[in-house]
Design goal:
Layout lengths: L5 H19 L6 H7 L4 H10 L4 H17 L21 E3 L5 E3 L5
Antiparallel strand pairs: 1-2
Helix pairs in contact: 1-3
Amino acid sequence: MNEFTEMASKRYQCAWRGYEATIRRGGSAKLSSYCDSVHVNYNGMKHWVAAHGLSVRHLRRRNSRRKIQIEENPVGGLPDMFVRFMPPTPMPLATMNSRGRRSRSSCPG
């Protein structure tokens, strides 16, 4: 049984992807703080994460292992003196819904 609406699932999935990206970039935000910053209900997000077998603890461990591997084998990673350039991605066009508010068709980033 799927207890999440399709719209809620999409929002939670987008929020999780954004949170993963934040952690991979070395961020240390708590999931609750991140949810607040992207306007996603934290309690709903917790339930969605658990229902999909995801874990903040495992995400952080996987990221720390990745950092250790890069430090031990810098050939595979970029040397510290270089900064990886990530070109900005265009934001999706906002459309007006029936209430006159802007709505996005997909998650940002």
